[in-house]
């Protein structure tokens, strides 16, 4: 699941302002009304008796109000409205990434949400990066969350920081908050902040991956008493079923949904995902100063994987690391946008996870959701 850089749009088509430490993910979901959202948050089955008996029903599907325990993870720069809506319409949970929506794909924020609602009446999602690195950024994130709530969004995935203030806003209208984590200490902080579930990012994820395997991370978090969604390394039906059998309440995929008809990513990027194997995914420090999972293309090989000596020196300094991360964030948000939409493939910083090993074709997003759901239903 490619990493989300943090920025604030100054208008469609203009370069955004970017906050330091801008390297993680974001999510939110919609309910149709307050009453149904309350049912989601409490984990109560929806009104359909058939849905309650579905072999795909999990605490996550009940929270989100969806049929299939599958999330299209929020991605900078690849989460365009058409992709988000297609996954939701097929029964999964499509989630949008605010900077992708506005800066990359050119939508005014509220208008972009309304476009997705026109494309599907089913729940959609949004992610909120909540690290309070500045008052100005915090105010913008509050505004985005308020607008999302006004537009019917009811399921949020928070990343970084203390999620309590988001939980209070969302629970007040019957919504649900899951928190993005890579290890137990962040999961405990999320639980203490009142979140309803966890997105567990493992060591096979795209973007900024965790350090632990799918199995080890679940074992570390299982006793916290919250639903856990697997994020990383799932690109095939077999891996999807394995994650559910391992005890996960759902699976979040990013890389798999880049290689779809609805995603606006350039064809060279999609082809590279289809043609890559797990061994082709390497960790590069060149985007953010922190290792990021990317496809090892000739361009990546030519620029190298390590940050330069000046950047490494600045990142070690207590004062200078703030400026270096800001520089990285500004540069990477532009580089990733350019690379994702560049049909020439000449400057290819293409984020992807090791799930590429299970991706063999570019296909409709809805077909992926339906095929994965069928595989899960066929389990003995």
TrEMBL record:
<dbReference type="InterPro" id="IPR013785">
    <property type="entry name" value="Aldolase_TIM"/>
</dbReference>
<dbReference type="InterPro" id="IPR004136">
    <property type="entry name" value="NMO"/>
</dbReference>
<feature type="compositionally biased region" description="Basic and acidic residues">
    <location>
        <begin position="1"/>
        <end position="22"/>
    </location>
</feature>
<dbReference type="GO" id="GO:0018580">
    <property type="term" value="F:nitronate monooxygenase activity"/>
</dbReference>
<keyword id="KW-0288">FMN</keyword>
<keyword id="KW-0503">Monooxygenase</keyword>
<keyword id="KW-0560">Oxidoreductase</keyword>
<dbReference type="Pfam" id="PF03060">
    <property type="entry name" value="NMO"/>
</dbReference>
<protein>
    <submittedName>
        <fullName>Nitronate monooxygenase</fullName>
        <ecNumber>1.13.12.16</ecNumber>
    </submittedName>
</protein>
<feature type="region of interest" description="Disordered">
    <location>
        <begin position="1"/>
        <end position="30"/>
    </location>
</feature>
<keyword id="KW-0285">Flavoprotein</keyword>
């Amino acid at each position: 699941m490619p990493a989300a850089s943090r920025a604030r749009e100054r208008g469609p088509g203009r370069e955004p302002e970017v906050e330091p430490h801008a390297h993680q993910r974001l999510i939110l979901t919609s309910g149709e009304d307050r009453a149904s959202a309350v049912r989601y948050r409490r984990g109560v089955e929806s009104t359909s008796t058939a849905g309650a008996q579905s072999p795909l029903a999990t605490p996550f599907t009940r929270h989100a109000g969806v049929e299939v325990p599958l999330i299209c993870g929020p991605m900078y720069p690849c989460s365009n409205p058409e992709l988000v809506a297609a996954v939701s319409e097929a029964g999964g949970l499509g989630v949008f990434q605010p900077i992708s929506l506005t800066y990359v794909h050119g939508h005014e924020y509220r208008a972009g949400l309304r476009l997705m609602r026109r494309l599907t009446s089913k729940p959609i999602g949004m992610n909120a990066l909540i690290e309070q690195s500045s008052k100005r950024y915090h105010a913008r994130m509050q505004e985005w969350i308020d607008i999302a709530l006004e537009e019917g969004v009811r399921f949020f995935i928070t990343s970084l920081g203390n999620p309590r203030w988001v939980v209070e806003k969302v629970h007040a209208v019957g919504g649900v908050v899951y928190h993005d984590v890579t290890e137990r200490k962040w999961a405990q902080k999320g639980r203490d902040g009142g979140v309803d579930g966890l997105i567990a990012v493992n060591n096979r994820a795209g973007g900024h991956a965790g350090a632990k395997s799918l199995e080890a991370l679940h074992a570390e978090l299982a006793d916290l008493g919250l639903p856990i969604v697997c994020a990383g390394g799932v690109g095939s039906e077999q891996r999807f079923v394995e994650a559910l059998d391992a005890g996960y309440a759902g699976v979040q995929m990013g890389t798999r949904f880049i290689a779809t008809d609805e995603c606006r990513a350039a064809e060279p990027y999609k082809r590279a995902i289809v043609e890559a194997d797990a061994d082709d995914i390497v960790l590069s420090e060149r985007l953010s100063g922190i290792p990021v999972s990317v496809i090892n293309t000739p361009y990546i090989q030519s620029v190298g994987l390590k940050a330069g000596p000046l950047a490494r020196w600045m990142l070690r300094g207590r004062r200078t690391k703030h400026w270096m991360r800001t520089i990285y964030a500004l540069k990477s948000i532009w580089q990733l946008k350019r690379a994702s939409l560049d049909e020439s493939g000449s400057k290819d910083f293409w984020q992807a996870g090791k799930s590429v090993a299970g991706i063999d074709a570019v296909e409709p997003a809805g077909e992926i959701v339906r095929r994965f759901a069928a595989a899960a239903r066929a389990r003995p």
